């Protein structure tokens, strides 16, 4: 990971949890989960939220702010799985862990006072790409389906990393040189941009996007991922899937983690919260 990106995520991990939210850690079906629970106004909905880090770094604490905000504002429980990381654990380890966490949550929702019919998936960056791929895998495997997918500047398409002309652009926080290393590590032994890669390894590779849950996609105007995110949103809409897009012009990747109290950051996160409130 780029030094600046690592610094950013380390800063995010130190973000304070909002008052009115309790945090606990459990291991369920072999998956450690950090759980954000509202102290009041509890809903029977829940969100499985996936942290980012390019598939090679990251930890649940990086979502302290947004997870506690969602728990407090929506009254929902937020479950953040600690998944395995590349290079030690390349694809499909992280998606397998997230799918296992989803399967456990759906199966045990009733016992925890939750509704298996009111669950959503969400994620940031690589976690957003995982959330999109997870929604695809859940659709194909049947059972309780997510009511929504909430994707913050998702990392969706390995073919972008294969376009080495993008290496000349110094995208702030996360550039294509880092992107190529991350995708190469994650997809090993497959190379980014290969004619064929494993199913679900890159959500943008899926041909048929119909029947997926309603989506919110937040994208940053000068982010490396901006074009792939716009394209995925367009394809969802063309497939008949409701998709709300929130664009922050002039913003770099994960900008809201730098300035969580800035009005543009709050508006960005509030847009996602409003979408989840409407759908859940």
Description:
The protein is of the alpha/beta class and 280 residues long. 38% of the residues lie in helices and 18% in strands. The chain contains nine helices and eight strands. It has helices at 3-13, 64-74, 93-108, 126-141, 158-162, 176-187, 226-238, 255-258, 263-279; strands spanning 21-28, 31-38, 46-50, 77-81, 119-124, 148-152, 215-220, 243-248. Strands 1-2-4-3-5-6-7-8 form an eight-stranded mixed beta sheet, with helices on both faces. Helix 2 (64-74) crosses helix 9 (263-279) and helix 3 (93-108) packs across helix 4. The longest helix is centred in the C-terminal third of the chain and has 17 residues, at 263-279. The termini are far apart.
Sequence-ordered SSE layout with sheet pairings:
Elements lengths: L2 H11 L7 E8 L2 E8 L7 E5 L13 H11 L2 E5 L11 H16 L10 E6 L1 H16 L6 E5 L5 H5 L13 H12 L27 E6 L5 H13 L4 E6 L6 H4 L4 H17 L1
Parallel strand pairs: 3-4, 3-5, 5-6, 6-7, 7-8
Antiparallel strand pairs: 1-2, 2-4
User: How many beta-strand elements?
Assistant: 8
- Multimeric status of the protein: single chain
Strand content: 15-25%
- Structural class determined from secondary elements: alpha/beta
The major pleated sheet works out as:
8 strands, mixed
Q: Report the radius of gyration as a whole number of Å.
A: 17 Å
End-to-end distance, in Å? 34 Å
What share of residues is helical?
25-40%
Helical segment count = 9
Strand order of the largest sheet: 1-2-4-3-5-6-7-8
Uncertain regions: pLDDT < 50 for 5+ in a row? none
Shape: globular
- SSE order, one letter for each helix or strand: HEEEHEHEHEHHEHEHH
**Mean pLDDT over the full residue set:** 94
């Amino acid at each position: 990971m780029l030094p600046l990106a690592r610094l950013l995520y380390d800063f995010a991990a130190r973000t304070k949890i909002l008052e009115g939210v309790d945090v606990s850690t459990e291991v369920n079906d072999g998956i450690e989960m950090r759980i954000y629970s509202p102290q009041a106004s509890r809903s029977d909905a829940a969100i499985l939220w996936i942290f980012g880090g390019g598939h090679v770094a990251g930890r649940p604490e990086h979502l302290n702010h947004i997870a506690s905000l969602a728990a407090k504002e929506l009254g929902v429980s937020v479950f953040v799985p600690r998944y395995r990381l590349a290079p030690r654990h390349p694809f499909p380890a992280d998606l397998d862990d997230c799918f296992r966490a989803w399967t456990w949550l759906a199966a045990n929702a009733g016992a925890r006072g939750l509704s298996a019919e009111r669950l959503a998936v969400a994620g940031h960056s690589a976690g957003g790409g995982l959330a999109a791929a997870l929604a695809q895998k859940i659709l194909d495997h049947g059972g309780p389906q997510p009511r929504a997918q909430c994707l913050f500047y998702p990392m969706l398409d390995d073919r972008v990393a294969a376009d080495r002309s993008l290496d000349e652009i110094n995208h702030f926080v996360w550039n294509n040189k880092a992107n190529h290393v991350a995708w190469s590590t994650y997809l090993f032994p497959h190379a980014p941009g290969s004619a064929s890669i494993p199913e679900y390894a890159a959500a943008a590779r899926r041909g048929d996007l119909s029947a997926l849950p309603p989506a919110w996609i937040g994208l940053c105007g000068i982010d490396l991922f901006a074009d792939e995110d716009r394209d995925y949103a367009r394809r969802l809409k063309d497939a008949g899937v409701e998709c709300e897009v929130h664009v922050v012009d002039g913003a770099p990747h994960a900008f809201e983690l730098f300035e969580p109290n800035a009005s543009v950051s709050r508006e960005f996160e509030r847009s996602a919260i409003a979408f989840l409130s409407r759908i859940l």
